[in-house]
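ESCALATION

Customer reports they have been waiting on this structure for their group meeting. Please prioritize. Original submission:
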Amino acid sequence: MAARLVFLGRLADLAGAGEREVEPGPLEAVLAGLPAELAVALLGERIRIAHNGELIAERGGIVLGDGDELAFLPPVSGG
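Update from on-call: job pushed to the front of the queue and completed.
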């Protein structure tokens, strides 16, 4: 089985799709398997992360398991 990355907003444009399946494992290993430009964007300090639907404050120690979803949420602007 696989884990799923979900990209919202401009991150989906950068990733070329709204989702990507990846091998489960530590976040650092998952990001290392992505294109460098995308990985750097996902690590931006203003990018929020939701693991299986729950926003998380600390990125350290995230390990994706089979069937997990990790969503990357860029800042939202509008009027």
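Sent to customer with the following note: The first helix runs from residue 10 to 15.
Escalation resolved.
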